[in-house]
């Protein structure tokens, strides 16, 4: 149990006498991420007490099948959400990219923390240290569990071969280092950095080579939508820039009806009050693709007064402390970019990708 010793006697949101239970997956990375969130909450609310409750999810248990083949939308979240629904935990820490764009009724994302590097990274076999993907011999095998990564990298590096690899970060790195099956594997840079393994990153993939997954690099805190005390507590961790970027990304994914079974990818940038969203869809082999960029202004003042929009969710996110009009603009941006791609034939590309993936 994490005990945040109080420096004063204030009653913090009426929660001071409660033990706040935080749900998480059991993996080492999940625990590191959850510990970091609890540490941030301790700094905000030094009088509160937290208990971490770790559990296994469907995605953790099925390690011999590609994620895209399992057909379950909430591979890494369902068991945690069940515990939240039964009041066994008060909040759950997720990697945002694991959360579907439509949450079960009664739940909301109460906070999205400041994003870590969202890009993908290449980790090379010890024999290939110091190289880049372009420098690897033809037919070198690259491991990735992501259709999105494989589809894009097949376009950028047609001389390489791509093979599925499953397991947590520790398992995948062990498979890379101790066998000769892979010349390199592709992982999220954020996970490697959080694990303290930044020195294993041999190459960061820029958006020209590989756009990232929706929500990649961001941590989300899921809560019961009607638990106002917990919702108010965690909302202090919202990072405004990350929230607006992720609303746009999730709206893009939702309007496309995408998921882990089809290659959908994004990149966002917030600069000078302009939000830029690049989105793309790919065929499984990367030969067919659509990619566009749109932008919108999110320069709206903070609304200080409570109003009728307080309980409004934007693609599952409740962020009362971020201007509602900015959130609306971000969501509209994602939807409009998806509509643009759909008008150019994205639905056909995604349908074919789904059919081929199901048939494999």
TrEMBL record:
Its EC number is 2.5.1.61. Its cofactor is dipyrromethane. PROSITE patterns: PORPHOBILINOGEN_DEAM (PS00533). Keywords: Acetylation, Cytoplasm, Phosphoprotein, Porphyrin biosynthesis, Transferase. The lineage of its organism: Eukaryota, Metazoa, Chordata, Craniata, Vertebrata. Residues 20-231 form the Porphobilinogen deaminase N-terminal domain. PANTHER family: PORPHOBILINOGEN DEAMINASE (PTHR11557). GO terms for molecular function: hydroxymethylbilane synthase activity. Monomer. Transmembrane segments: none annotated. One of its GO terms (biological process) is protoporphyrinogen IX biosynthetic process. GO terms for cellular component: cytosol. As part of the heme biosynthetic pathway, catalyzes the sequential polymerization of four molecules of porphobilinogen to form hydroxymethylbilane, also known as preuroporphyrinogen. Catalysis begins with the assembly of the dipyrromethane cofactor by the apoenzyme from two molecules of porphobilinogen or from preuroporphyrinogen. The covalently linked cofactor acts as a primer, around which the tetrapyrrole product is assembled. In the last step of catalysis, the product, preuroporphyrinogen, is released, leaving the cofactor bound to the holodeaminase intact. It catalyses: 4 porphobilinogen + H2O = hydroxymethylbilane + 4 NH4(+). It is found in: Cytoplasm, Cytosol. This is Porphobilinogen deaminase. Belongs to the HMBS family. The gene is HMBS. The keyword Transferase applies.
């Amino acid at each position: 149990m994490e005990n945040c010793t109080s420096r004063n006697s204030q009653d913090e949101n009426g929660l001071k006498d409660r033990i706040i239970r935080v749900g998480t997956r059991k993996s080492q990375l999940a625990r590191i991420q959850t510990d970091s969130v609890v540490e941030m909450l301790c700094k905000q609310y030094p009088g509160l007490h937290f208990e971490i409750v770790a559990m296994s999810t469907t995605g953790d248990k099925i390690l011999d099948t590609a994620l895209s083949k399992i057909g379950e939308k909430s591979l890494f979240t369902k068991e945690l959400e069940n515990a939240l629904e039964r009041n066994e935990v008060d909040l759950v820490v997720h990697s945002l990219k694991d959360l579907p764009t439509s949450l079960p009724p009664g739940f909301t994302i109460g906070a999205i923390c400041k994003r870590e590097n969202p890009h993908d990274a290449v980790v090379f076999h010890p024999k290939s240290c110091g190289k880049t993907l372009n420098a690897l011999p033809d037919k070198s095998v690259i491991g990735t569990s992501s259709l999105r990564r494989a589809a894009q990298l097949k376009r950028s590096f047609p001389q390489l071969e791509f093979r599925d690899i499953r397991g947590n970060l520790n398992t995948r790195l062990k498979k890379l280092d101790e066998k000769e099956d892979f010349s390199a594997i592709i992982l999220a840079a954020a996970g490697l950095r959080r694990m303290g393994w930044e020195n294993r990153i041999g190459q960061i993939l820029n958006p020209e080579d590989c756009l990232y997954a929706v929500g990649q690099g961001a941590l989300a805190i899921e809560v019961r939508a009607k638990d106002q005390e917990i919702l108010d507590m965690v909302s202090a961790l919202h990072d405004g820039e990350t929230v607006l970027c992720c609303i746009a990304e999730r709206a893009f994914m939702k309007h496309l009806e995408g998921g882990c079974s089809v290659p959908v990818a994004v990149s966002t940038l917030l600069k000078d009050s302009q939000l830029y969203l690049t989105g793309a869809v790919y065929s499984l082999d990367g030969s067919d693709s659509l990619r566009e960029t749109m932008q919108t202004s999110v320069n709206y003042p903070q609304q200080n007064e409570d109003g009728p929009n307080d309980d409004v969710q934007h693609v599952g996110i409740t962020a009362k402390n971020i201007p509602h009009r900015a959130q609306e603009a971000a969501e509209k941006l994602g939807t409009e970019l998806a509509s643009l791609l759909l008008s150019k034939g994205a639905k056909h590309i995604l349908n074919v990708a789904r059919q081929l993936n199901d048939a494999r």
